[in-house]
């Protein structure tokens, strides 16, 4: 009996090994195309870009160490581009988050009818081309455009939206807010719908007002989504290119007030044809994104993590 059972166990083990091997081959077969695509289209260009940032690229490739980084940090336009970007981000991101949370709370209200329609309306800016939106807003900001027409109707003098450095930044902030509020509204709405109604019912029984419920329950429970949305908005803001490019092309606007890092990167690459410095600028964007994201996770993340 013992001798007859041994071959059957051996056969079962061999079949199991063959099945496991087949599953592994299938898994590798499914993963391999993605890995190859990732290596060819993402990893290799990243490595090449990082290498280029340490080179002077002309008719030949010359290793120059940190000279490209030192050169861009000595360039006033590089500093100006980051100053403009940080001002625009500081003006647009907080307002975007506040408006998105407000709209999400409205859309989550049980009394609101036609929620599907309003969700679609709020999401439309997200799927609309940034170039198209910037072009439309540029006409709104013209001296005879919609915004000045509205101000004139109220008896207020028109604003120099696209000629005054201060208002140029405000115009870009307004455009960025309009583009990003809808996406963040849907994010926060999904977060609100994941909060149990029983929590609010318990708080209401304990005598908590709607105001206290919002700040003591809703905001803390939305904290991970707020953090994620803020980090994504920061990364998106650093890479802002289309809005200033549509408004002013590569002219940078009066007093370089529309010069952002993305436009500076483009001009360095294709107008100055200095791919070494352009790569260095691109990598400063990576470093700044990492630093700002780390700061946000430090102060906005869970203290227990």
From TrEMBL:
Q: Which family does it belong to?
A: Belongs to the binding-protein-dependent transport system permease family.
**Official protein name in the record:** ABC transporter permease AraP
Record keywords, A-Z: Cell membrane, Membrane, Transmembrane, Transmembrane helix, Transport
* One Gene Ontology term from the biological process aspect of the record: transmembrane transport
Q: What is its main location?
A: membrane
Localization terms from the record = Cell membrane
Q: Does the keyword Transport apply?
A: yes
Q: Which Gene3D superfamilies match?
A: MetI-like
Topology relative to the lipid bilayer, per the entry, is: Multi-pass membrane protein
TM spans (from-to)? 27-52, 85-108, 120-141, 166-192, 213-235, 280-299
Q: Name one GO cellular component term.
A: plasma membrane
Q: Which InterPro entries match?
A: ABC_transporter_permease, MetI-like, MetI-like_sf
């Amino acid at each position: 009996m013992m001798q007859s059972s041994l071959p059957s166990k051996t056969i079962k083990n061999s079949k199991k090994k063959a099945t496991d091997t087949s599953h592994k081959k299938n898994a590798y077969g499914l993963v391999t195309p993605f890995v190859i695509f990732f290596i060819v289209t993402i990893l290799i260009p990243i490595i090449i870009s990082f290498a280029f940032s340490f080179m002077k690229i002309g008719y030949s490739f010359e290793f120059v160490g940190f000279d490209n980084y030192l050169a861009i940090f000595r360039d006033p336009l590089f500093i100006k581009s980051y100053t403009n970007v940080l001002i625009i981000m500081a003006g647009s991101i907080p307002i975007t988050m506040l408006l998105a949370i407000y709209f999400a709370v409205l859309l989550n209200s049980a009394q609101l009818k036609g929620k599907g329609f309003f969700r679609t309306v709020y999401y439309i800016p997200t799927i609309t081309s940034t170039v198209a939106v910037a072009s439309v807003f540029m006409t709104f900001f013209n001296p005879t455009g919609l915004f000045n027409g509205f101000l004139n109707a109220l008896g207020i003098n028109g604003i120099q939206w696209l000629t005054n450095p201060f208002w140029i930044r405000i115009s870009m902030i307004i455009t960025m807010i309009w583009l990003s509020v809808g996406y963040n509204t849907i994010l926060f709405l999904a977060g609100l719908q994941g909060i149990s109604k029983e929590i609010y019912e318990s708080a209401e029984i304990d005598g908590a007002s709607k105001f206290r419920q919002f700040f003591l329950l809703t905001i803390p429970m939305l904290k991970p989504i707020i953090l994620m949305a803020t980090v994504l908005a920061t990364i998106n803001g650093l890479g802002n290119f289309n809005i200033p490019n549509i408004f002013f092309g590569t002219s940078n606007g009066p007093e370089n007030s529309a010069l952002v890092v993305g436009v500076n990167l483009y001009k360095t690459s294709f107008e100055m044809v200095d791919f070494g410095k352009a790569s260095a600028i691109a990598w400063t964007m990576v470093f700044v994104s990492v630093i700002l994201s780390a700061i946000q996770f430090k102060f906005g993340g869970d203290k227990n993590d």
